[in-house]
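Please check the following for our workbook:

***
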Amino acid sequence: MKVQSEETDRKMQETDRKMQETDRKMQETDRKMRETDRKMRETFEQMQTRSEEADRKMRETFEQMQTRSGEADRKMQETAEQMRKTEEQVQRTSREISALGSRVGEIVENMIGGDIIEQFRALGYDVTEYSRNKIFGRKGTGESGEIDLLLEDGDIVILIEVKTTLKIDDVKDHMERLEKYRRHIDEKNNNIDRRKFIGAVAAASVADHVVKFAQRNGLYVIVQSGKMVEIITPPEGFVAKTW
């Protein structure tokens, strides 16, 4: 009887121990479940934060793309407008150049059709022939050029530069052109061409100070009035410069 009672106590103690162990395991399981739940909430919050950040970045990217697209459109419109203005300017310049060329051509025609040759003959130059738009030298080099009107009397060649409005720089340019032409002829004919070259400048409009500058440098000045052209009377002591 006593032995059974002890066995029963032992079994009850074993059962109580197992129940305590089971209770401990259940508590541990509950703790793990709470931890898992906490981690799941954290993961969800992180995912939600990342999703919101991704949405924010996508909105920013879209806004930037819209801004850049608007800026690109504005620049394209500005470029198109600038190209239109440039085209208009090119057309205006082309018309002005064409008009200028026509005006220069008109002055040359008036000189040839008028008595400019007779006027030079009156100054002692026995002009026998002329040529227009004479190009010399190798094109594209610093030694090339064009003579608007060239008068020849055998020993003397008169090189005439024609402008609508004559300026001092035009006179200087023509003097350089005369030097180039002299070098061109010497190189072409091995320095045996003994002709002398003199210069003249012609225009529809010439200021007095430009006339004086040209004459001081030994150039004749021709001016157009209507359809008539005349050599401005050189000052006393004038000597044409020769090249």
The two ends are 158 Å apart (CA to CA).
